[in-house]
Amino acid sequence: MFGLSDYATAIIFFVLIILLTLGITAYASMQNKSTSDHYVAGGKIKGWQNGLAIAGDYLSAASFLGIAGAIALQGFAGFYLSIGFLVAFLVVLLLVAEPLRNLGKYTLADMLTARFNMSSIRSAAAVSTIAISMFYMIAQLVGAGALIQLLLGIPYAYSVIGIGILMTIYIVVGGMVATTYIQIIKAVLLIAGSVVLVLIVLANYSFNPFALFNAVESEIGSTALHPPAPSSITASLDVISLNIALVLGTAGLPHILIRFLTVPDAKTARSSIVWSTWIIGLFYLITPVLGYGAALFVGQDAIRAASPEGNLAAPQLASTLGGPILFAFVSAVAFATIIAVVSGLVLAASSAFAHDFYTNVIRNGEASDSEQFRAARIAAIGISVAAIVLALPLQGANVAFLVALAFAVAASANVPVILLTIFWRRFNSTGAVAGMIVGLVSSVGLVILSPLVLGEAAIFPFERGSPALISVPLGFLACYLGTVLGGRGAEREREQGLQIDYDEIYVRSLTGLRPEDIDQETVQRPTGH
Amino acid sequence: MDSHRNQEWVAVERTSAFQEYSRKRKAFLIPATIFFLLFFMGLPLLAAFTTVLNGKAVGPLTWAYIYGIAQFFMTWIMMHLYVNRANKWDALVERARQEVAEEKGR
Predict the structure, then answer these.
(1) Which residues in chain A have Cβ-Cβ distances shorter than 8 Å to B47?
(2) Mean pLDDT highest for which of A180-184, A230-234, A329-333, B77-81?
(3) What is the average pLDDT value for chain A, to the nearest integer?
(4) 3-state DSSP call for residue A415?
(5) Three-state secondary-structure class, residue B61
(6) How far is A193 from chain B (nearest CA, A)?
(7) A230 and B51 in contact (C-beta within 8 Å)?
(8) Residue B8: its chain A contacts at CB < 8 A?
(9) Whole-structure pTM value
(10) Does A214 touch chain B (CB under 8 A)?
(11) I want to staple A160 with a disulfide (CB 3.0 to 4.6 A). Which of A145, A216, A504, B13 is the partner?
């Protein structure tokens, strides 16, 4: 579908991005000297840097390619993803970010075990972190393989393996420092690429968005500008379920949450949220221009011909409006987007494996710093290989909705436990483990029973397969029932040293004070905090 | 846990500064969270069960788009409201820490 010279230019851009990111990784390796550097960049990232890096982690291929395609083909229904992904940030900011930063160290499990002194909690949190990150990573790899095959003509399997090798190198060599810089560069490239595309589209309408919408109405039809009319109760509940997953899921995504552990204090965490919310919001706000622009200039038939899900709408739009150079640039931006996001996911998943399973469960917290560092790097290789092997047979799956499913699992397995650990005094370890297991099993199970996997034989009727409407309440219910019916009760767990006193958790989660801050005789300002 | 450690945290919790911080935080967060969740779910609920958002609002823009774009501004405004408040609450945390330290110094 694209000419040979398009490939040549695109390959030059891809190679430039690979060289740039490898250069950054080499530079970052000089700062990647200890376990803390590897997991959280030593907690030394600046607010604006972390803000851009959060945007980089968050604006995945699903956002850039998936939403543009969804709006091009489905109209307003695709814009739900934009709105949901953004408003979800409020859940993170208002309810989760600061308590997590205040209680945590390297991983999500660290925050939960700040309260529950038990390896079963740590293991359950590690399992759900790895499951969610894998789900998300496979979605990105599947999208990347399809993208590169169509853009460059490289077979799917080679593309997936190639990206897999790159993400392994970034993390093993450069750790969190490299990931952070790669996310920042990728965020800047993605914004630049999107703004250029939007300006070229709008230039055709005298920079008047209303003229663009008028053109959509006359050439595509007014149905593209509003949500589809209610058809059946199942379809309506499907939409509700998708939106619940979108708004709650972000607060349970490990690779986003660990970004708040890379900054030195709560004030910096807030400043990074200000940066990321503006960048992410402005990006999502212009997605309709990308999507409708593609529908108008490329045509819905041509978009479907290239990819039935519309995943190539943005590069196709670049090719139509800007020729080979812009096509090559936008394709390279999509490529940078994918490698940056998968590297963040490898870091989250391998930290959960190495820090939570190896160091704290298997070695009982007694591994030396160099042993932990080595374990983190070996885990990164293992996680990458597993993700590649799982992505290879899944060619042709829809990127945007695969990611939405990762959100559903995060919303069901992690969010109830995170919220109740912070806010519920009576919560106990049985409830926490039950909540994570039930949330994980029910969300993944319902996806398997949905049309996405079983097709015609589906038992769970939601077309988009989002299980959140059922699995999120189940996650909360399991937390509640586990606490009330099972186990020792919060009081007895405290007496046995299995749970830290809630007064401590409450004060620490709100203030960020550490035990050493108040256990002192004089009014000295604690250092390094 | 040893009770000595617990008392340290209870002491922080009892300071007037922490009480004020905790009260102000709840007074903002509870209504804010309820509001933004309802405001967010309002769009898919209205769109999934009615067609009231399908009409034109401004020029070619439908009410669905107006509502959707309003969510962006709601998010940005809410984010700044929270960050401004939280940055002021930091002073209360510092005061609570000092109150406890002075208490012990006595």
Answers:
(1) 227, 239
(2) B77-81
(3) 84
(4) helix
(5) strand
(6) 21
(7) yes
(8) 515, 518-519
(9) 0.88
(10) yes
(11) A145
